[in-house]
Fold each of these.
Amino acid sequence: MSNSGPDRLYLDDLHVGQRFRSASQRIGEDEIKAFAAQFDPQPFHLDEAAARETLFKGLAASGWHTAAVTMRLNVETGLPLAGGLVGAGGEISWPAPTRPGDSLHVESEVVELIPSRSKPDRGIAVVMMRTINQRDEVVQILKAKLMVSRRPIGRH
Amino acid sequence: MSNSGPDRLYLDDLHVGQRFRSASQRIGEDEIKAFAAQFDPQPFHLDEAAARETLFKGLAASGWHTAAVTMRLNVETGLPLAGGLVGAGGEISWPAPTRPGDSLHVESEVVELIPSRSKPDRGIAVVMMRTINQRDEVVQILKAKLMVSRRPIGRH
């Protein structure tokens, strides 16, 4: 929960090609249905029998549920950025659905670093985040633009 | 919840420039904190006092919470597509944060229609979705690629 501390990374500590890997988290059928009931109440996310008749061919998590779990993994174990993880936006896709019982982890790679011209205390890190299940299938690709603090002068 | 019915739209029923507007939904402080505790446990989403010291200058919803509420609004009152709302991916940005007590609605516009070459029963609709608060500020822009069914032969 703390966004400061000696092991937190500033923009100046990042380099293109740097990689991070989060811990894993299992997504249960009850969680898939609870998220869907609250935010994406469609048959293929709520009901196994109904889902079999759809293009998902079985119960699948909402893509936004996969995105939310990806965020939790990155906040807690994935990307130890000073100031926390603040996204300005990005490109997202879901090449495969998350299924009940899947264990997901996130593999991230810094692809671009853009210091701000107008605000010398910050910049943008573009990070490619792949959310991967226990069968090594990529269930989400997120190319995220993160706002990252520069290292304060005098702090090492 | 039903994804069929006479008033549901197939790809063939959509045209570029077509607009849709969802109902509004209020987002309370408790909901913001509950979502954050589960999926985005960072101080600026969890604690008003801590949030004032961050670049958010006060409690703000996780962008993924705004995305999830946007999905619910579109599923229930925004986009009445046959087969439901199935996203392949898209581009997302959060120009302003969602604040406690904000009422959000979604304004969507069809910007491109791409029938599948390999699968004659479906296609992609590219839809620009703007999530807007009660002060007419845009809190999220999502350019979504949705998989949409073609009208079955013989069904009118």
Amino acid sequence: MSLLIVGTVAFDELITPFGESGKILGGSATYGSLSASNFMDEIRIVSVVGEDFPQEHLDLFAQKGINTQGVEQVKGGKTFFWKGKYHNDMNTRDTLDTQLNVLADFDPVIPEAFRDTEYLMLGNLTPAVQLKVLEQMNQRPKLVALDTMNFWMDVALDELKVVLKQVDVLTINDEEARQLSGEYSLVKAAQKIFTMGPEYLIIKKGEHGALLFHGSEVFFAPALPLEEVFDPTGAGDTFAGGFMGHLAHSQDISFENMKRAVIYGSAMASFCVERFGTDQIKNVDRKQVHERVMDFIDLTRLDMQLSK
Amino acid sequence: MSLLIVGTVAFDELITPFGESGKILGGSATYGSLSASNFMDEIRIVSVVGEDFPQEHLDLFAQKGINTQGVEQVKGGKTFFWKGKYHNDMNTRDTLDTQLNVLADFDPVIPEAFRDTEYLMLGNLTPAVQLKVLEQMNQRPKLVALDTMNFWMDVALDELKVVLKQVDVLTINDEEARQLSGEYSLVKAAQKIFTMGPEYLIIKKGEHGALLFHGSEVFFAPALPLEEVFDPTGAGDTFAGGFMGHLAHSQDISFENMKRAVIYGSAMASFCVERFGTDQIKNVDRKQVHERVMDFIDLTRLDMQLSK
């Protein structure tokens, strides 16, 4: 089993109704790999950082079994930085500052040792960069998952469609599914998206849970109602990391196991939002993950005695 | 077993992206009682209509076992009318016309034969009217459920709080739960609302499902992803009717049975939105309800083999 995550390793600065984070570790590959590390002993990441990226973060990755051989550190460069402020409802946010820095010229080089990886997670990046990753693999991975966003549908739809042809699992939110398909009904949206390449569609709905579509089948994973929703940053990437981590660990890509993977991803995301940044997901252990998964199961557990 | 629903019987005119309904039968007591009629042989309603209310609608109620003895028909009066237009996303709508007509002076009189009803559903009305209903009951019903909305929290919060003290089950949406409690977290909102009277809180989230809170327990019912969402009008009242209909029929108000009731309510609501107005819920039969409930069960069915 092997898992490769390609995405950003970044600095975030977050302002929420509950406080300010200061400049902290962020990025899709960061959240995804820390989340997946609860399921596997080695995760490979490919990303780019600047000379300002501190050793302590690299040490954290190493400690979690995250292989950073594919993380290019650009001499004299600065790490991608994003600053955002969440509104009181925590569902909407304003971007206060975006400094692409070294990400602007990110030309991913997949180390030779990573090119046979069986499970590949392509984090939200320009479709052109996602395509370059696929082109460097020695053979098509067993499973390719891709995350994207409305921005790429607006500015790079043609390229996105080329990448989608090579993807097994697409993870987007409900509005993005509607935009990509032109269909309001998520059932119809899924069917349309299946004609574009992916065989599985995961619709992430944040505090409203997640839907997994495959063929004519559908599975719904609720979101756990939480006492504290502290910071939603990275929840989607954390979900994807748990999802792919479970699949890669179990070596089983049946629909039934994908359903379990969606629950594992949801459980990891529920930890993520309870603290700032990676504070919670980097400290959680497998026992806590197990208990949280049981909370998810209990949430929809029902002994149905059908009335006549 | 007996169920009384107090609410509006009205005319609606709906404009959706899929067409216009013309002037059709609507109102919370209408949707609620038609929905409940799938679970019980007699439902009592209390409402008010004008002289313009046609016999064919009264015949429909009679045919479904809905006792309209408590529906006052005001000579020379006109029936409550609402006209609305749904936006493309079907989640938001504009009110184009509201004519309260006979509803403006609605002073509910509960027929003597209804005053011992065990299950009482108070549809969304002014809190003062809801209170008048409770005062006329011979004894406290076995279960009182109440629906309300943000408007009454804005203009009649003190009266609403008086009614809430006598209510067992409150059904509102997530934003209303946040407004009523002053808490963003729905878990905390539920705990606060429990101190106001209700022992059960149902948070209706439309296409995102429903949450049932009781003490420290929580149950999540998904919404079924549908191919066609044609008209969301009345979905909440249809949910409440199915919920109360199942409880009153089964004579069991345990938390476990309330979970089942939430699924029955959700199933009925899923039928409601597939057609204009009451077109679908007045024609559905128990076999179809049974099959739809199985679809809900399948949606979250999961054989969890926990990984270590």
